[in-house]
Write a structure and sequence with these properties.
Blueprint lengths: L2 H51 L6 H13 L19 H7 L2
The structure holds zinc ion.
The site of zinc ion has 7 residues, from helix 3.
């Protein structure tokens, strides 16, 4: 058995493990950031839901302005997905509601 080549293989493996370890650390950091971001968005959604509950939905232009603002901030205001984040861009249900 070629000892030299075994040492080279082990050294290469050590190097790859080192790189993977660094990559793992980066991924852990990203997951942590995503969890925090998710938590922040959940709280924001909760806050907006609570605020939206008090809105005079079908009354006056102020209610419509508020709904428009909530929609612009990235949330659904349609009764299909009310209060959830608009992850897919524009929503035809929301838009038809705003332009009623
Ligand atoms: Zn919608």
């Amino acid at each position: 058995m070629d000892k030299q080549s075994l040492f080279v293989q082990v050294a290469n493996m050590e190097e790859r493990i080192g790189e993977l370890y660094v990559e793992l650390g980066t991924l852990k950091q990203k997951i942590q950031e995503l969890i925090e971001e998710n938590q922040r968005l959940e709280q924001e959604t909760e806050r907006l839901r609570a605020a939206a509950k008090d809105l005079p939905l079908a009354q006056g232009s102020e209610g419509l302005d508020n709904l428009n603002r909530i929609y612009q901030e990235g949330f659904h205001i349609c009764n299909v997905k009310y209060g959830s984040l608009r992850t897919e861009g524009e929503c035809l249900f929301c838009l038809s509601f705003l332009h009623k």
